[in-house]
Amino acid sequence: MDPFGSPERIALADTVRGFTQDHIAPHMDTWEQAGEIPLALQRAAAATGILGVGFPEDVGGSGGDTVDMTVIIEQILAGGGTGGVVAAMLTHGIATPHIVDEARRRRAAGDRVGADRLLDRFVRPVLAGTAVASLAVTEPDGGSDVANLRTRAVRDGDEVVITGAKTYITSATRADHVVLAARTGEAGAAGVSLIVVPTDTPGFTVARRLDKMGWRCSDTAELSLTDVRVPADNVLGFEQGFASLARHFVTERLTLAVTGYATGQRCLDLTTEWTRDRTTFGKPLASRQVVRHTLAEMHRQVDVARVYARDVAARHAAGEEVTLRALLAKQTGVAAGEFAADRAVQLFGGAGYMTGTEVERHYRDVRILGIGGGATEVMTDLATRLMGL
Amino acid sequence: MKIAVCVKQVPDTWAEKKLTDADRTLDRESADGVMNELDEYAVEEALLLTEASGGEVVAVSMGPDKAEETVRKALQMGADSGIHIVDDSLHGSDAIATSLVLSKVLADKGFDLIIFGSESTDARMSVVPAMVAERLGVPQMTFANKVEVAGETLKIQRQTEYGYDEVESSTPAVVSVVEKINEPRYPSFKGIMAAKKKPIETVTVADAGVDAGQVGLAAAWSQVDQFSERPPKAAGVKIEDDGSGGVKIAEYLSEQKFI
Ligand SMILES: Cc1cc2nc3c(=O)[nH]c(=O)nc-3n(C[C@H](O)[C@H](O)[C@H](O)COP(=O)(O)OP(=O)(O)OC[C@H]3O[C@@H](n4cnc5c(N)ncnc54)[C@H](O)[C@@H]3O)c2cc1C
Ligand SMILES: Cc1cc2nc3c(=O)[nH]c(=O)nc-3n(C[C@H](O)[C@H](O)[C@H](O)COP(=O)(O)OP(=O)(O)OC[C@H]3O[C@@H](n4cnc5c(N)ncnc54)[C@H](O)[C@@H]3O)c2cc1C
Q1: Could you say which ligand is closest to the alpha carbon of residue A139?
Q2: CA-based nearest distance B125→chain A, Å
Q3: Residues A39-95: pLDDT tens digits?
Q4: Chain B touched by A262 (CB under 8 Å)
Q5: Are residues A233 and A247 in the same domain?
Q6: Same domain, residue pair A248 and A213
Q7: Complex ipTM
Q8: Which domain holds residue A221?
Q9: Ligand 2 mean position to A349 CA, how many Å?
C-alpha cells in the first residue's frame, strides 16, 4: 500500500495544510519584513505535534518517521508557506537529533541522569515550542569542507573552552542553544565534536544578523565565540561529531529534496491558475501551446522528483540504507524546484518580478537549496564515491 | 460530564454540489466528504468542556459507510468514542426522520449534553437540534456562542441578530453552537495516531428500535419532483461613466429593487 495514502497520513496532511493556511500564510509578509518568525508560531506548531514528528515519544516527541516529515513539508508549501518557514520553524530538525542520540547512548550505558539532563534542558523545551535550537557547523573559512573546521574546544577540568567563529547559522539570533561543531582532537574528521552551547554563555555573541536574498523570514547569524566555557557534559561524545553529522545528513537531504519539489508543485499550481486567468493578444495564456508545454514540463520534473523522493523516504523509514539515493533525491528535488520557480516567474511576466507575488518569493527561496546541506557539486562528488568510481 | 456531539458528513464546502438523476437526492459520491464545518465547533466545545471538568465525549453520526471518516475525524480531534448509524434504509431521510433516529440512539444513554452545529452546509435546515430536543423532552439551548455548565445548570449566550440573550436551563439538554463560540483545533499528530485505536460502534435502524418504514426517501415529508441547473451567469450590465454614471447605477439598483 502507498504509505502516503493511509488515512492517518491524509489526516496529517489536512492538519498541516489547514495550520499553514491559518497560522502561516497570512503572516508571511510581516515575518519576511521582520526577518524572523515569532516564538508563538513555534508553540502553535508544537501543539499540533508538527515539531515533535520524527522524535520518539520518550524524549518528548510525537513519534512518526521520514514519511510523516515528508507529508508535513509538502503541506507547508501547499498551504502557502515557504522554504524559509520550513527552515526557520523546523531548524531543530537538524540540531536536536544529535542531542537525542547522545541521550540514548547514555541511557543504554546506564547513565539515566546524564541522559535526562540533556533531554530536560535541551530537547523537551524545543519540541514543546518554548525554546529554539540551531546547528552551527559552517565557518567563515568554509562550509563544504566540514572535516577541516577550525573552531577549537579545549578541555579544562569539568569544562571545555571554545574559541572560534561560525557563520550562516539558521535561527541562531533567536536560539536558546546551538549544537556547535568544534575541534577537540586531531586534524581532520576524526577530531570533531558536537557541543551544546547555551546562547547566554559568556563569550558567546551573535556578531551579526545576516541579510540575504531569500529565506527572509528565517534569521541567519554570524557567531563569535571567545573563551566560551560549557560543562564537558554538554559534549555529545568526544570526537563523535563527524559521525553524528554524517548519520543525520540523510534526513536533512531528504528534507531539502521535499522542500525543492514541493516549492515546484506550489509554483506549478499558482502558474496554472494564473495562465488561465491572464489574457495576452486576445487569448488566455493557457491556450498557447508553448505555455501548456511549459506547464507540462514543470509537472514532469516535479512529479518525477516527488515519486523518487517519497520512495527514498519510505525506504529510509523502513530502515533501508539510502545515503546515495537521498543525495540523488536532493539533487532532483532541488533542480525541479529551481526550474518550476524560474518558469513561474517567467509566465507571471512583470507581476512575477514584483515583491509580494508568491512565485517571486519562491524563486528567491529555492536558490539556497542547491548550496546548503551539501552543495550540488559536493553531492555529485560524494555520489561518485558511493558508486565506487 | 458525558457529552454526545452530533457530526454530519457533507460534501466539501468548495465542491460543486449535484443532485443525482436517479432519485433527486444529493450526490454524496461525486464530492469529497468532510465534517460539516459548524460541527467542528461542536466537537471543540465538547472537548473544552470535558478538558476543563472531566468527562467523556461520544461522536455520533448518521450517514453512509463513508461517514465513518467524519466520526474518525472527531476522534482524531479528541473525542473518546464514536457511534456510526448506518443503514441502507436511511438513504434520503429528511430532518424529521434524522431527528427520530438520532433521538432514539441518544435516549437513555446518560448524556448530560448533546451538542450540535447549528446548521449543515448542504441542507441548511437548522432544525435537527430543535427536533431532537423536542423528541427527547429536554431543553433546547440553540445558537449558543458561549456555554457554561455548573452542576446541573447550563447557561448559554444565544446569538441573536443584534447581540445575545442569556438563557439558562437544567441538564440534560440539547445545545447547538454558532461559529463565534471557539476556534476548532486541528487533529494533532498524536490525536491522529490515538484515533486509530478508539472504538466506533455501528448501529442499524433496527438496533435503534426504529421501524424502517419511518425513515428514508419514501417516508420524507417533502419530495423533489424535478430540478434544473442554475442558469449560467448573465453578462451583466456595463455602465459607461459619461458624467451620469452615478444616476444610472442608482436607477439600475432601484429597478432590481435593491434600493
Ligand atoms: C541561508 C543559509 C542558511 C544556512 N544555515 C546553516 C546552518 O543552520 N548551519 C550551518 O552550519 N550552516 C548553514 N549554512 C551554511 C551552508 O551549509 C554552507 O553555505 C554550505 O555548506 C556551503 O558552504 P560555503 O558557503 O562555505 O561554500 P564553500 O564551501 O566555499 O563552497 C562554495 C561553492 O563551491 C562549490 N564547491 C565546493 N566544494 C566543491 C568541490 N569539492 N568541488 C566542486 N565544487 C565545489 C559549490 O558550488 C559551493 O556552493 C547556511 C547557509 C545559508 C546560505
Ligand atoms: C522592473 C520592471 C520594469 C518595467 N519597466 C517598464 C517601463 O518602463 N515601461 C513600460 O511600459 N513597461 C515596463 N515594464 C513592464 C514590462 O514591459 C512588462 O512586464 C512586459 O512587457 C510583460 O508584460 P506583462 O507583465 O503584462 O506580462 P504578460 O503580457 O501578461 O505576459 C506574461 C508572460 O506570459 C508569456 N506570454 C505572453 N504572451 C505570450 C504569447 N503570446 N505566447 C506565449 N507566451 C506568452 C511570457 O512568458 C510572459 O512573460 C516593466 C516591468 C518590470 C518588471
Answers
A1: 1
A2: 27
A3: 999 999 999 999 999 999 999 999 999 999 999 999 999 999 999 999 999 999 999
A4: no
A5: no
A6: no
A7: 0.85
A8: 133-239
A9: 5
Domain ranges of chain B: 2-219
* Contact by Cβ (8 Å): B60, B17: no
Stretch 31-90 of chain B: residues touching chain A, C-beta under 8 Å? 69, 72-73, 76
Q: Options 3.20.20.210, 3.40.190.10, 1.10.275.10, 3.40.50.620; which CATH number does B2-219 get?
A: 3.40.50.620
For residue A315, the CA-to-ligand 1 centroid distance in Å is: 28
Residue window 33-72, chain A: list those with CB within 8 Å of chain B. Answer: 47-50, 52-53, 62-64, 68
Q: Are A63 and A138 in contact (CB under 8 A)?
A: no
Whole-angstrom Cα Rg for chain B:
21
Cβ <8 Å between B76 and A68: no
Q: How far, in Å, is the centroid of ligand 1 from the Cα of B126? A: 60
CA distance B125 to B129: 10
Asked if A93 contacts A251 with a C-beta cutoff of 8 angstroms, the reply is: yes
Which of A135, A151, A368, A371 to mutate to test ligand 1, by most ligand atoms within 8 A of the CB atom? Answer: A371
A49 within 8 A of A71, measured Cβ to Cβ: no
CB contact under 8 A, B76 and A11: yes
Nearest to B45 by CA among B3, B105, B99: B3
What is the rounded average pLDDT of the residues A344-370? 97
Query: Three-state SS across B129-179?
Result: HHHHHHHHCCCEEEEEEEEEEECCEEEEEEECCCCEEEEEEECCEEEEECH
Grid-cell match 468532510, residue found: B34
How many distinct structural domains can be found in chain A? Answer: 3
pLDDT, one tens digit per residue, over B63-110 is: 999 999 999 999 999 999 999 999 999 998 999 999 999 999 999 899
Task: Enter the C-alpha cell of residue A214.
Answer: 531569500
Q: What is the DSSP letter of B223?
A: -
Same structural domain for residues A235 and A257? no
- Contact call for B189 and A53, based on CB within 8 A: yes
Q: How many CB pairs under 8 A join A and B?
A: 42
Residue A100 lies in a domain: no
